[in-house]
Amino acid sequence: MLEIKNLVVSYGSIVALHDVSLNVVAGEIVTLIGGNGAGKTSALKAISGLVAPSPGSIRFQGEDITRLKAHQIVKRGLCHVPEGRMIFANLTVAENLDMGAYLRTDAVEKRATLQYVFSLFPRLKERAQQIAGTLSGGEQQMLAIGRALMSKPKFLMLDEPSLGIAPLLVKTIFEKIVEINREQGITILLVEQNANLALEISMRGYVLETGRILLHDHSPALRRNPEVRKAYLGGG
Amino acid sequence: MPHRPKSTLFAAVLIIAALALVVPQSINQYYLFILYDIGINIILAVSLNLINGYTGQFSLGHAGFMAVGGYTSAYITTVLGPKLLLLLGGAGTASSSLLFLGSLLAGGFTAALAGLLVGLPSLRLRGDYLAIVTLGFGEIIRVVIQSMDAVGGQRGFSVAQTYTNLFWTFSMAALTIYTIVALVRSSYGRGFIAVHDDEIAAEAMGINTTQYKVTAFVTGAFFAGLAGGLYAHSKGFLTPGGFDFMKSIEIVVMVILGGMGNTLGVILAAILLTILPEALRSFEKYRMILYSLMLVILMITRPQGLFAWNWKWRRRASPATSNKKGSP
After folding, report:
1. Which sign, positive or negative, has the C-alpha torsion A47, A49, A53, A57?
2. What's the domain range around A75?
3. What is the C-alpha to C-alpha distance for residues A227 and A87, in angstroms, rounded to an integer?
4. Count of the separate structural domains present in chain B
5. Structure pTM?
6. Which residues of B touch A (CB under 8 A)?
7. Gyration radius of chain B's alpha carbons
8. Neighbouring C-beta atoms of residue B162, cutoff 10 Å
9. Structural domain of residue B186, as residue ranges?
């Protein structure tokens, strides 16, 4: 579904990604793990058109999207939930969700998606009229995911959904991610520092280090890999 | 911190429109001119609020747009006016009103064009950088006008007819408020606030942020141009120096004092900041010191904006969502 070949991303003279290739098959949950500054976020930003890649190609459903603008990419069903729960703090929860469906014109189906998001995260329904900036961290993450779902994506990219959230809520959110994948058939590319959790729910994983792909395997195999255990899973 | 009170704002529009009809035309000239200034400043502040408040960009060039509009409309009524009046059927009230309205709109559109010219190249910039570019742009306009002999250059430009009256001033103010409030409250308009709150997230949601920023600039500039036309035809005399960057700062102060993205607050701040320097006239040489001191005190005690009543539930968002603001 998504094929990336020899992607390079640089900010001025600093190269964030060197020659990264990866692919995601429809229906999968694939995770990208790695330490701080490994280039995980840069990879997602390049895919969704938020930063322009210098050499490399990105194909989505067979179409070359490397040079497309962010809003054109969203239109094709690829939606990015940015890191740090970037919700619109001054809009209400309902308005935030509405912004997620910004490019959609089908009012009836939009309502159906909204019902789905509310059933997935009942908390959002309770707080629909609340200003989003006053939500807790976990609720804001739910809102960010819900808002992305409102665009009715075929492919969802999540950047660090566990960042700064209470452990109990992290579990809920990860369960919801699996649910979204299974029930809606939405393909997911997950970037996560919590490698343990990410490898638990994903089918395959890529290990990124200083802008290069170091390893790539099925998640259970990665969890057994001694190097990965040592570097990312806190085990010996 | 944008917020959008519903009925109150439309009530304000009605009151301001009513003011145009209720205030007797025989009022003392001094007060009359203060009323004109209030109306003009409301237009300027409310339109800048779309750019600086709702959309979260930082423009310091509003006086530049005002100058473009002011000079354009003054040139039309003064230089082209006599010929145009003949075309419109002689110097009656109807034809001169039409001429004035036309000149105001022409001023607005020319300023909007200028807004497009600044908007397009400066969209890659945010915050302080954008502020500097718009500041530079405002100064360029001033210098260009200064060297244009057709409009008097440094000597200034004398406007033939002072067409501005209460009706025009306040109906234009009401039009400005109505348009901008309706725009921001529409579902399209939420995009401005989305761009303000988080540009990256907005972009990731498929919002064309460039288009929103240009729209904000062009719309803001249009109304600034309108205000410039009213200003030109109330003072009767234009000098490039009247549109220097201090004028821009004055408008920015109104927006900040009123509360960024709070239209009602910005209207009240525009009224207050027009009256205040006049009310302080009896203090003579201490006037501007007192004025500045009051601004400092107001900013320290009411950083959320002087007129943000409901600031409790608009409390600051978490650091993760309130970073990278283009606003101070």
Report:
1. positive
2. 2-232
3. 36
4. 1
5. 0.80
6. 1-3, 187, 190-191, 193-194, 196-198, 200-208, 261, 313-318, 320-322
7. 19
8. 14
9. 7-322
At B292, list the tokens: 């500045």
CATH number of the domain at B146, please.
Answer: 1.10.3470
CB pair distance less than 8 Å for B206 and A102: yes
Supply the CATH number for residue A15's domain.
Answer: 3.40.50.300
Which residue is associated with the tokens 């910039």? B125
Is B1 domain-assigned? Answer: no
* Token pair for B180: 């901008």
β-sheet bridge partners, residue A209: A212
User: Residue written as tokens 């500054």?
Assistant: A37
Strands A14-24 and A2-11: antiparallel
- A27: amino acid identity, one letter: G
Which of A85, A89, A147 comes nearest B205 by C-beta? Answer: A147
Task: Look up residue A54 and give its two tokens.
Answer: 């210098």
pLDDT digits (tens, 9 = 90+) for B23-68: 666 678 888 888 899 999 999 999 999 998 888 888 899 999 999 9
Segment B201-220, tens digit of pLDDT: 888 888 888 889 899 999 99
Rg (CA), chain A: 17
| Domain count along chain A | 1
